Fold:
Amino acid sequence: MLEGGVTMLRLEGVSKVYRVGAFGGRKRDAVRDVSFTLGAGEVVSLIGESGSGKTTIGRMILRLTPVSAGTITLDGQDVSALRGSRLKSFYRKVQGVFQDPFSSYNPVFKADRVFAMIRSAYFPGVSDSDWRAKVAESLAAVRLRPDAVLDKYPHQLSGGQLQRLLIARALLLDIRLLVADEVISMLDASTRIDVLNLLGDLKERGLGILFITHDLALGNYLSDQTVILRGGEVVEQGPTADVFGSPQHPYTRQLLASVPQLHKKWSEVDAELAQR
Structure:
């Protein structure tokens, strides 16, 4: 892993335009002129409502959606220019985990198939015993036991277990950047904190994390830097303590005002708003 603070991911003026309409005659700007950096051992939260462009940005970083304008670089290399073995090497360093863990598994196969696919693509020469040890090590990093999860079908595991399995799969590649797109939004409250704390542990190990969420409280809990999106554009960004403690943009202030205050009753908050 790189030492903390070293910039590895850089987005400069990134935009994404989709052609829409019956014959693609109209254009829709999903992302406009987005720039930010992410360093090793750093968590950057990308926060915005539905349709703000945050998932599109994650997909462009992962090469799942092409960039319309601007550049995305990893260690100075233009991600869009990677082909063949260089692209395969890129996926050794960068992986994504998404909102619905169940969609990443084929229900007719047991959970260990997601590891077998990684083995065939990246570790064909590793012996069975070495592979079992490697998988056990990656599962231990996400606090799972091989005997508790690998021989189970996806429907026999919880959403939290499935998400941690996907993170363990990424760790098999010794990745340096994880794109975590709404990874806990479909989990129940009892497992959300476990996955959040796991991401925090990975950050301490030097992993860079792009944490994509619509939930400001989650972003505040985990991130070092925060980027606020609205309608595909960055409206505010900076150290999380500054963005949350002294927001400069009216939209950020509006978002923060909409977060439920658990230390107050609804009637108290409603009375305060009425006085403004």
In short: The CA atoms of residues 94 and 177 lie 5 Å apart. The first strand starts at residue 7 and ends at 20. The domain at 7-108+173-259 is CATH 3.40.50.300 (Rossmann fold).
